[in-house]
Design a protein that fits this description.
about 700 residues, Rossmann fold, Alpha-Beta Plaits, seven-stranded mixed β-sheet, 18 helices, about 30% strand, elongated
Length: about 700
């Protein structure tokens, strides 16, 4: 029923890493009676952070889901990671939210990742509130943190709950609009006592209340007119106006508390229940038809055709794939068949589950606003739309960040290569930023992600879930060789061994080709000096030899070979003999045709704050980079530059270090260029040393 949908609040907890999201979620669950013990991240006893990798790091690395009932409202919690390494998981999960609670540390204030999460909330046009957490910690300063929030995100960020004391003296919170004080005295039980506003806070509460009322009035034309005329506005009208202002994105309530000590959390839940939007408040979701040529909408109505978006996939080697989805319209029941409009596939499932951290509770049905899970969908992955086949829609896909950090991965145990590939493929179903590819030139398996910690966590999951252990190392740069000159040379292979011998003789002309042309072979034989059946063998011998290079072990590219002359023996000649002769001719020709080494050049788009421009530009130059252009993007600058791949293999951590975590970049292959001579000498020397070791 629509009345039930109006009571649903689906919100995401987002922030920089370590701001206390999970501690806040744990306190919410405990106060609502979902858990019987207050989960503590530091003790490894969190309901939400349950993966061994999360317990080890005491940090969220994967979005978790839970729900609670609070004063006749259903609150669905999405606890998203704050670390940059797992930022894609946070962005994906936000597709399932109707609002966001952004956490700010009472000690450190707004940090880089806080800004990034705010931008994500903007991308999805999410109404939001700010929770100033860790009010119990030493050096906690609510006023400073609240001012920092306003300075970064605007004056619409208005305190509605302020602290009674702070740091070791943090005792409770004051509801500014309703002028009520709530004192906490019984450990972390969440028990409180409502009292009058303390005398030393009355002036501050009065001042902040006036500011709050002004912001409420500015968001409502009717209230504004009455406010300007000095007319009295009732408390009920103000509370309703507050709700409308928040749901409409015109006011951002700032609240405070301590998740660890469970102080102020019931009042925060009250604000969420009262102010945050329901699916009905958010209105219809935009979609497209299956062909993508017509815009459609889905109303948050339980009686409408069913539609949902898969916002996360969890892959388990034993339980199989768990698909977590946000329902936008209609009602979904257990033992149903749904249509995947992206994959054009029907999916059948049995149990319908409500995620509870690491566990799931079976439920008979779910409607708009709900976050639910189903197991073992065969075709469905994250980002897919599930819907009624008779009234199919497709929800738009979001742009995710590209993988920017790569390592070569190899099994610790020989013979596990295939197992690595299949296991990582399963993990890639969970993590859309994870990439695995085999570099044919370097013969390495390359694992790419968002950073060092990201890759480290993946390898830990590999071992835990699939029993596969791997070694990681810096990838080899896929250099290539080419030539700059022309030459004519003979390749002659003759072998006598008492019986039938081997004889192949060919003359070739070699010359360079423009970059990117590869290998071209021309048959210029006249007069049958080499029989037709042997000519393909010469080409094959050259092509195979080119794979191993001549001076550095890297493939030779962008050259043309003309087969111009030769001779044969009517008895001893064979395809094998001419293949060897072609290979011999090629190896000698490359050395005479001015060989050189090419390196891959990458196109980087680097976005950095203004104050870091000098350092980043200097760093780009030191990496043999060539700046192609710059442009302003909001408060940041974007640098476009070509930089050799060998110089940016560790660019992700280096850029974060230079910019205090504020820099971002994308990287794509551009072209190949000749390596400077000094660098070539080092590459050739390393190759010769390797060959000596192999002897």
């Amino acid at each position: 029923m629509k009345e039930d949908v109006a009571k649903v609040r689906t919100f995401a907890l987002i922030s920089h890493g370590g701001a206390g999201k999970t501690s806040l979620a744990e306190a919410m669950l405990f106060d609502a009676g979902v858990t019987t013990r207050l989960g503590k991240v530091d003790e490894g006893a969190s309901t939400m952070d349950f993966e061994p990798e999360e317990i080890k790091r005491k940090a969220t690395i994967s979005t978790a889901f839970n729900s609670l009932d609070w004063k006749k409202h259903q609150l669905n919690i999405i606890d998203a990671p704050g670390d940059f390494n797992f930022i894609a998981d946070a962005k994906t999960s936000l597709q399932g939210a109707d609002s966001a609670v952004i956490l700010v540390d009472a000690i450190d204030g707004v940090r880089v990742q806080t800004e990034k999460m705010w931008e994500f909330a903007n991308d999805f046009e999410l109404p939001r509130m700010v929770f100033v957490g860790k009010m119990d910690r030493e050096r906690a300063d609510f006023d400073k943190a609240a001012s920092d929030v306003q300075a970064n995100f605007g004056s619409s960020c208005t305190p509605v709950l302020i602290p009674i004391g702070q740091a070791e003296n943090f005792k409770g919170v004051v509801d500014v609009l309703n002028e009520k004080a709530y004192y906490y005295t019984n450990g972390d039980s969440g028990k409180f006592e409502a009292k009058d506003v303390p005398a030393d806070l009355k002036d501050e509460v009065s001042r902040r209340r006036d500011a709050l009322i002004e912001n409420i009035a500015e968001a409502n034309d009717d209230l504004l007119e009455r406010y300007l005329e000095g007319e009295e506005i009732s408390l009920d009208e103000l509370n309703e106006g507050l709700r409308g202002a928040v749901a409409g994105g015109k006011l951002v309530p700032v609240v405070c508390g301590s998740g660890l000590l469970n102080i102020g959390i019931p009042q925060v839940l009250d604000v969420i229940a009262q102010c945050m939007p329901s699916p009905i408040d958010r209105g219809p979701r935009k979609a497209a038809n299956v062909k993508g040529d017509a815009e459609l909408v889905r109303e948050p109505d339980p009686d409408a055709p069913f539609s949902a978006l898969v916002i996360k996939t969890i892959s388990d080697p034993y339980a199989g794939r768990l698909s977590i989805m946000r329902i936008f319209s209609g009602t979904l029941s257990a033992d149903s068949t749904v249509y995947n409009s992206v994959k054009d596939a029907k999916e059948r499932f049995g149990q319908l589950l409500r995620p509870r951290g690491k566990t799931q509770d079976p439920i008979p049905s779910a409607g708009p606003g709900d976050i639910v899970a189903v197991a073992k969908l065969k075709e469905t992955t994250t980002g897919d739309t599930l819907c009624d086949e008779k009234d199919a829609v497709v929800f738009p896909a979001i742009a995710l960040p590209h993988a920017i950090y790569s390592l070569a991965v190899e099994p610790k145990s020989k013979g596990d290569e295939e197992k690595i590939f299949s296991s990582l493929s399963r993990l890639m179903e969970e993590d859309l930023t994870l990439k695995l590819e085999r570099n044919e030139e370097t013969r390495e398996m390359i694992l790419s992600g968002m950073g060092e910690i990201h890759i480290e966590v993946v390898t830990e999951k590999l071992k835990r879930k699939f029993g596969v252990e791997v070694n990681l190392q810096t990838p080899k740069v896929p250099y290539k060789e080419t030539i700059k000159g022309k030459t004519r040379i003979q390749g002659r292979y003759k072998k006598q061994s008492g019986g039938r011998g081997q004889y192949g003789d060919c003359w070739i002309e070699m010359e360079p080709l423009p970059r990117g042309e590869g290998f071209v072979f021309e048959d210029r034989i006249v007069g049958g000096v080499i029989p037709r059946q042997y000519i393909p063998a010469v080409e094959k011998g050259i092509a195979e030899a080119a794979k191993d290079g001549a001076i550095s072990g890297y493939p030779v590219v962008d050259f043309k070979v003309g087969l111009v002359d030769g001779s044969f023996h009517p008895v001893d000649s064979s395809e094998m003999a001419f293949k060897i002769a072609g290979s011999m001719a090629f190896k000698k020709a490359v050395l005479e045709a001015k060989p050189t080494i090419l390196e891959p050049i990458m196109l980087l788009e680097i976005t950095v704050p203004d104050d870091a421009m000098g350092d980043v530009m200097g760093d780009v130059n030191s990496r043999r980079g060539r700046v192609l252009g710059m442009e302003t993007k909001g408060k940041n600058q974007m640098i476009r530059a070509n930089i050799p791949l060998g110089e940016v293999l560790r660019y992700a951590p280096d850029l974060r270090s230079m910019t205090a975590g504020r820099g971002m970049f994308t990287m794509n292959f551009s072209h190949y260029e000749e390596v400077p001579s000094q660098a070539q000498e080092k590459i050739i020397a390393a190759y010769k040393a390797q060959k000596e070791e192999e002897k």
